[in-house]
Amino acid sequence: MTASVLVETGRVETETRPVPTPGPGDVLVEIAAVGVCGSDAHYYRHGRIGDHVVTAPMVLGHEASGRIVAVGQGISESRIGERVSIEPQRPDPNSAESRRGDYHLCPHMEFYATPPIDGALAQYATIGAAFAHPVPDSVTDVAAALFEPLSVGIASIRKSGVTVGGSVLIAGAGPIGLVCAQVARAHGATRIVVSDIDPARLDTATRFGATTTVGPDEVADLEPVDAFVDASGAPSAIIAGIGAVRPAGRVVLVGMGASDLTIPVSIVQNRELVLTGVFRYANTWPTATALVTAGLVDLDAMVTGRFALDEVADALDADRVAGSIKAVVFPQRLAREGAMTEDGTTAQRASDQQTSGHGERNEEMAS
């Protein structure tokens, strides 16, 4: 198979690697689409995120979908052919965290594209069968890949406690902020305020659930909200957001920014705010499927760039392009093989799909 490999900081290369063999309890997935996350770009540019340091060549990408093509021992062959969204986690089922249901916090976690674990920017990848979630035909390969960032939004809004008629302030109108806004709307929030320093991003936020948008200097003048979700990681945004929360409200920190931060403790104490964080997620894929199939969340509309597997460097830098929201890579396609169709396949491959009779689904057919 072909894989895109981060060989050193600032350099990715395509390599030929053996197709992985699914172990007991695993499935082998032919990867259809991979969303590019900010963490991927950070590893690419800096070689580390906090204590997670890239010390050897590594495959990036943890937002993935595809089709099961082989199964390991103990898994029914009836799963072969299923279209799936990958939950990119391998927790230790015997850890205390996993046993109590917090498997995403397992200290022995093997997570796609977190050193030294390879991710999904390759033509094939293996994952535990329970973490390969079937998706209905109404869900595109792209949307199925983006169930991963959607899951961050689901976990965040769950922790915020926002429900019908509630209000929330979301700092940051990037991909996570936008999915948080959509999930908050699906939860019945009637006042969804999004703040960002970029006016263009604020315009985008109104298309994805925001009822009000404000610049950083306007947060202090807001009517108090039930909850604040930070998806920016910016210290100034966090401090301002905490000040905008009503007494007994909630603060959820999602964005990855400074390792240390001075917060207004007197506000947290005097208002009895609940302050928590979101690192990953657990038990969110059923909710993600329900939200997307019901039309309550639109993930396809967030895609602003499509790339082949040998264009990963461009995909990783797509966030520097004005108007970019989410880049998606199609690992079964190589740019050198021909022009890409709307669904991310080469023109020749698309033609083969239409005439083969194998029933392989592509995005164009789904729409």
Describe this structure in words.
With 367 residues, the protein is an alpha/beta fold. The chain is 26% helix and 26% strand. It contains 12 helices and 19 strands. It has helices at 38-46, 96-99, 141-145, 147-160, 175-186, 199-207, 235-243, 265-270, 285-293, 312-316, 347-356, 363-366; strands spanning 2-8, 11-16, 26-35, 48-49, 52-53, 63-71, 83-86, 89-90, 110-111, 124-128, 132-134, 167-171, 191-195, 212-214, 225-230, 245-253, 274-277, 303-308, 326-330. The strands form 5 sheets. Strands 3, 6, 7, 10, 11, 18 and 19 form a 7-stranded mixed sheet that branches. α4 (147-160) crosses α5 and α4 (147-160) packs across α9. It is globular.
Task: Compute the number of helices.
Answer: 12
Structural class: alpha/beta
Q: What's the rounded overall pLDDT mean?
A: 92
Poorly predicted residue ranges: 345-367
Give a topology summary.
Blueprint: E1 2-8, E2 11-16, E3 26-35, H1 38-46, E4 48-49, E5 52-53, E6 63-71, E7 83-86, E8 89-90, H2 96-99, E9 110-111, E10 124-128, E11 132-134, H3 141-145, H4 147-160, E12 167-171, H5 175-186, E13 191-195, H6 199-207, E14 212-214, E15 225-230, H7 235-243, E16 245-253, H8 265-270, E17 274-277, H9 285-293, E18 303-308, H10 312-316, E19 326-330, H11 347-356, H12 363-366
Parallel strand pairs: 12-13, 12-15, 13-14, 15-16, 16-17, 18-19
Antiparallel strand pairs: 1-2, 3-6, 3-10, 3-19, 4-5, 6-7, 7-11, 8-9
